[in-house]
Amino acid sequence: MIKEKHIVWGLAILLLLTTVFDVYTALISPVFSIGEANPIFLLFGNAFILLIITVAFTVYVVWKLKKCISLHGIFLFILIALYLSLAHILGGWTNVNAANSYYENPEETVAKLQSATVADKTLFYFGAIFVFTILPIAFALFAFSMTSSLYAQRKERRLLVVNDMRKLSKDMIKLSRKLTEE
Predict the structure, then answer these.
(1) Mean pLDDT over all residues of the chain?
(2) Which helix (H) or strand (E) holds 101?
(3) Which of 56, 64, 115, 151 is at a distance of 20 to 30 A from 170, taking alpha carbons?
(4) pTM reported for the whole predicted model
(5) 42 and 118 in contact (C-beta within 8 Å)?
């Protein structure tokens, strides 16, 4: 059985590595300042503020996961950690693609990125976040809530099965003793 600390540390390391990948690929990209679509960067125009907020949110998610004791809360923060990691991977991937596009054709890439308005970038960013993180988390939480409800409603039936298994087990032990005595 996997221990709690291994799960939490594994998720924390995954989140940390994907965060570093995303931030590193963004900061070394030659088109970061004109191509970044993150609304925090668009609002403040500062990569350092974006980095601080990203790291702070990552630490918050890991801390909440470590402290949470409700089944729904644990599930939610594991989902957030996994989908946030996926979002960082996608962010890093788009950073690498933008840099490669720049190296292949700098003038065209810069012109294309400069032609995108803040509204265009924000719409793209929130659309990607919605499709790749919020929507899957909402579906998973909905499915988990329905599962939890059905599981709770079927408690009596599960207890009947467990009681039947206990009775069967006791009967088998009695039969086994009887056979060994003969």
Answers:
(1) 88
(2) helix 71-104
(3) 151
(4) 0.73
(5) yes
